[in-house]
Amino acid sequence: MIDQTTTARCKEIPGRISKSPWFVARPAGRIILPGGVMRAPYGLEIIESCLACPHREERLFCNLPRLALKKLSEITSVASYPKGATLFVEGQNPRGVFIICTGRVKLSTSSADGKTLILRVADRGEVLGLAGAVSGKPYQATAEVLEPSQVNFIPRDRFLQFLGQYGEAALRVAQQLSENYHVALSEMRNIGLSHSAGEKLARFLLDLVAEQSKERSEIRIKLTLTHEEIAQMIGASRETVTRLFSDFKKKQLLQVKGSTLIIPSKAALETILEA
């Protein structure tokens, strides 16, 4: 739960610059550098309209009929955020929904004694705060930006009116809520039914590379999460995760070069789940 001071901090208007640690945003206008070079805040390539988005056909909620997409653009505020910015906090009354255009956002929950569990990491195309916006109940997680991102905002009242007008959009919302539900069940199963911390870490790594081609023997991905954040995702301590990474390296199950994670063989990593 959050106190009144925290709630007040979270009522900042998206798109304004705020010194509050709970909400940091700034307008998504471009900056003209010497020589006429155009650059968006935080080095982002800003998508100014849903109609012009080059990725919308790939995204569940954004892949809407043109008329609905035009209306969506009209009610959406464009905003860019730096790493570490907070979109909303657990227990806060829902102000609206946030659409991730670029970047990633982690969703976490905390206990009264300060323990944190990362529920999942949301990627571009996802709509955050859906359950709260639809039900009117407080947000059930805290959303924190993991890297410079464009995350657009739609006020709750306008979003609900939009869903009432466009049945296709309402169907997409139902699909994403269903997908979120299945992801949550999968995470609960992985954490609750895994026999060891090693198995939990192996499942986590396999989920990270699940979309990679099965034809590739070696898989490389950029790992931006810290050991502390991975520990919060699999329900273990940071020390345990660090030790497991060392063990996996010795067994040649993975390599780490800077921020690049290399998995020589998915099949070898999967043997941990069969042990």
Task: Kindly describe this structure.
With 275 residues, the protein is of the alpha+beta class. It folds into 2 domains: 4-190, Sandwich (Jelly Rolls), CATH 2.60.120.10; 194-274, Winged helix-like DNA-binding domain superfamily/Winged helix DNA-binding domain (Arc Repressor Mutant, subunit A), CATH 1.10.10.10. Helices cover 37% and strands 20% of the residues. It has helices at residues 4-9, 66-75, 130-135, 156-165, 167-193, 197-208, 227-234, 238-250, 266-274; strands at 26-27, 31-32, 38-39, 79-81, 86-88, 96-102, 105-110, 116-122, 127-128, 142-145, 149-155, 219-222, 255-257, 260-263. Strands 1-4-11-6-9 form a 5-stranded antiparallel sheet. Strands 5-10-7-8 form a 4-stranded antiparallel sheet. A hairpin with a 5-residue loop joins strand 2 and strand 3 (38-39). The chain is globular and about 55 Å long.
CATH homologous superfamily title of the largest domain: Jelly Rolls
Uncertain runs with pLDDT below 50, 5 residues or more? 1-38
Computed CA radius of gyration, to the nearest angstrom: 20 Å
Give, in order, the helices and strands: HEEEHEEEEEEHEEHHHEHHEEH
Q: Return the CATH architecture of the largest domain.
A: Sandwich
**Biggest pleated sheet:** 5 strands, antiparallel
Q: Which CATH class of the largest domain applies here? A: Mainly Beta
Strand order of the largest sheet: 1-4-11-6-9
- Give the helix proportion (percent range): 25-40%
Structural class: alpha+beta
What overall geometry do the principal axes of the alpha carbons give? globular
Given the structure, what is the number of helices? 9
What is the count of β-strands?
14
Enter the CATH topology name of the largest domain.
Jelly Rolls
The overall pLDDT average reads: 79
Distance between the termini: 41 Å
- How much of the sequence lies in strands comes to 15-25%
Tell me the number of structural domains: 2
